[in-house]
Amino acid sequence: MTTSRKALIIGCGIAGPVVALFLQQVGIDAEIYESQPAGRDEAGAFLNLAPNGVNVLKALDIDHLLAADGFHSVGMDFFNGDGKLLAQLESSDEEERFGSRNVMIKRGRLQQVLRDEAIRRNIPVQYGKKLTGIQLNGFQNITARFEDGTSAEGNFLIGCDGIHSRTRQLILPNAPRPAYTGMVDCGGFAQCPAGLSTSGAMQMIFGKKAFFGYIAKPDGEVYWFSNVPWPKEPKRHELNAISADAWRQQLLHNHGNDPAPVPEIIESTPGEIGKWPVYDMPSLPTWHKGLVCLVGDAAHATSPHSGQGASLALEDAAVLAQCLRDSLKVEHGFAKFESLRRERVEKIVKQARRTGNGKMVTNPVAVWFRDLVLPFFIKQGAKASEEVLSYKVDWEKEVA
Ligand SMILES: Cc1cc2nc3c(=O)[nH]c(=O)nc-3n(C[C@H](O)[C@H](O)[C@H](O)COP(=O)(O)OP(=O)(O)OC[C@H]3O[C@@H](n4cnc5c(N)ncnc54)[C@H](O)[C@@H]3O)c2cc1C
User: Fold this and answer.
1) What is the DSSP letter of 143?
2) Which of 14, 177, 301, 312 is most buried per CB count within 10 Å?
3) Buried-state track 65-88, b at ≥16 Cβ within 10 A, e below 16
4) Quick check: CB of 158 below 6 Å from ligand 1?
5) pLDDT of 2
6) Positions of E strands within the chain
7) What is the rounded average pLDDT of the residues 2-22?
8) How high does pLDDT run on average in the chain?
């Protein structure tokens, strides 16, 4: 059993609060430091929390907190750019197969629910604390320095600061950087265009110029995304310089010839449509150094095509706490954590990259071939995803 007792957690996104909650379960105090000035509860688009991720929240008895804002997808229907149905995936039986159902939820709401629960369980969360430096003080003490000139001390530090992790840059300055995947993701929320079916399944369209996905909530609100091929990595200021109107026109140009209601959804989306260049993380030489460990996207970000990034971050949180619970030394706990997690997550990152590449096919011959073989690959993919979705953390099991 480790004797170190206070964790500094960097980042209050998805992993941060859940790491803190699991550490609390094993008697380790944690404080969370988030760079943003306040919770961004309305920011971002939406995500699908897969059954394996929901099962992690169940272990903390907080899965029910998603009920107010989340809803379940009953499957996926795949279409080509002419509106021809290519394949279907059923997921309404996930409860029996995996012990939980997926939850579609707005990113900001998910973060809010997790953070509020951490605060309710007396875990301090400090905003406006952007990590800039780390200093080791002997074998069991570490100082985190923040941009505002303040600092915090603890016995170890967990970097939950996402794909562009500052923690990673500090402990592994020569590690590979996030890899751009050749695509900009965008999406938003719209009111249901007239005549739109609300079947409850995610509609996935291999559009003529870009991939489009949408699902209608039972109350009629449509959650949607588009994967826009963008070969050269854009700079953030370049994307920010595109006006809301110009971006909408660009999306309508990409999807104007795709089957209804794709253009109508774009047209009926109010306000600015968010846009995010898509990255994943090449394999890192290690996920930890001394009294510092990386978790979630900081260690192994996957592109969104797996629908697994958030769930993997949640799995990490539980496994890390388990490893620290059962290890005599913090460093041993970190090493055990990495050994238990690396193979699973890196396999998923690679598969997501392949899925993403498959979405960018536009050559007519390749499109013809894709339409032909897609039903087979969807079936194969569904079999392979059984292993991903059925993962459960065995919390009681001793791991060290
Ligand atoms: C467009 C898109 C769609 C996605 N869709 C899905 C999906 O459907 N399903 C799914 O499971 N996953 C999805 N993902 C992946 C998922 O969002 C991530 O895997 C998940 O957010 C990782 O959680 P995290 O806590 O590791 O990082 P994050 O959620 O990124 O949280 C990191 C936090 O650290 C803070 N931070 C950053 N730097 C510092 C610093 N220096 N000091 C202090 N704080 C800092 C940030 O402000 C942030 O709050 C998607 C990702 C994208 C980009």
Assistant:
1) E
2) 312
3) bbeebbbbbbbbbbbbbeeeebbe
4) no
5) 47
6) 6-10, 29-33, 46-49, 75-80, 85-90, 103-106, 125-126, 131-136, 142-146, 151-154, 156-159, 179-191, 202-206, 211-216, 221-229, 274-280, 288-289, 292-294
7) 90
8) 93
Domains of the chain and any CATH numbers: 6-178+281-389 (3.50.50.60), 179-279 (3.30.9.30)
Instruction: Give the atom of ligand 1 at the shortest distance from the alpha carbon of 166.
Output: 41
Q: Is the CB of 213 under 6 A from ligand 1?
A: no
Neighbouring CB atoms inside 10 A of 380's CB total 11
CB of 16 closer than 8 Å to CB of 36: no
Q: Does ligand 1 lie within 6 Å of residue 259's CB atom?
A: no
Spell out the residues 6+ positions from residue 366 whose beta carbon is closer than 8 angstroms to its own.
none
Return the structure tokens found at 122. Answer: 């007396």
Q: How far apart are CA 230 and CA 240, in angstroms?
A: 15
Amino acid at 165: S
**How far apart are the C-alpha atoms of 306 and 77, rounded to whole Å?**
16
pLDDT greater than 90 at residue 196: no
Q: Assign 273 to helix, strand or coil.
A: coil
Distance CA 312, CA 315 (A): 5
